[in-house]
Amino acid sequence: MENIIPEALRKVVEEVSSLPGYGEKSAQRLAVNILNMPRGEAIQLIKTFMEMLEKIHPCRECGLYTEEELCPVCSDETRDRSTICVVEESFDAFAIERTGKFRGLYHVLGGRLSPLEEITAEDLNIESLVERVKKNPTKEVILATNPTVEGEATASYIYNLLKNMDITISRIAYGLPFGAVLENADDFTLAKALEHKTPI
Ligand SMILES: [Zn+2]
Questions:
Q1: Contact at 8 Å (CB) between 103 and 73?
Q2: Which 3 state secondary structure label does DSSP give 183?
Q3: What is the whole-number distance in angstroms between the Cα of residue 177 and the centre of ligand 1?
Q4: pLDDT digits (tens, 9 = 90+) for 16-37
Q5: Rounded distance from Cα 131 to ligand 1 centre (Å)
Q6: What is the CA radius of gyration of the chain?
Q7: What is the Å distance from ligand 1's center to 195 Cα?
Q8: Is there a single domain that holds both residue 119 and residue 135?
């Protein structure tokens, strides 16, 4: 049968569905939603994406997405520099920050180990974490990766790299159900998870 999907539409669906978390159906929905928008609004949406690409980059120290060279956390002199909270993505740190319960620094891995998606330790900001811990007077590293199979595997991988150093390594305590995603947790649950973190 002849493929009647226009080439330009097929390309968008193909590229979007190659992103983690997007299947063909959600990619189709996104493409059609944009096409269905009034043209001016659709162009504004694309411009917003362009602006994000131009302005946002990872913080030089911790990898948190920011507009400055150093993120607001790293440049805040009142933060506790001896504690580093390790998260998968910037939005996990933004969620923890919203609870107001954490006064240390962050380290953003940029993902999690995933054999299925062929994401290995080299693809993540793990080496830079080890360097940070070695270089700075770190007392505690809190592993706040998601309570999923991949998040747990990532936490234990990092634990093994750090365990012989003279620091406390903690795992965030999850009142969250296994398989939950940190950035979706409500503030109360997340605050409790931080409060009840346990040394590994
Ligand atoms: Zn930073």
A1: no
A2: helix
A3: 29
A4: 999 888 999 999 999 999 999 9
A5: 15
A6: 20
A7: 22
A8: yes
Compute the distance from residue 73 Cα to the ligand 1 centre, in Å: 6
Residue 17 lies in a domain: yes
Instruction: Compute, in angstroms, the gap from residue 168 CA to the centroid of ligand 1.
Output: 21
Q: 16, 37, 55: which is the final residue of a domain?
A: 55
10 Å CB burial of residue 167 (0-12, 13-18, 19+) is: middle
* Same domain? 18 vs 79: no
Q: Measure 72 CA to ligand 1 centroid, in angstroms.
A: 7
How many angstroms separate the CA atoms of 131 and 113, rounded?
19
Provide the CATH number for the domain around residue 178.
Answer: 3.40.1360.10
| Domain, as residue range, for 41 | 7-55
* CATH number assigned to the domain comprising residue 24: 1.10.8.420
Instruction: Please tell me the distance between residue 64's alpha carbon and the centre of ligand 1 in angstroms.
Output: 5
pLDDT over 70 (residue 15): yes
Q: Measured in angstroms, how far is the CA atom of residue 74 from the centroid of ligand 1?
A: 4
pLDDT in tens, 135-186: 999 999 999 999 888 999 999 999 999 999 999 999 987 766 666 677 777 7
Q: How many domains does the chain have?
A: 2
How close is the Cα of 68 to the center of ligand 1, in Å? Answer: 9
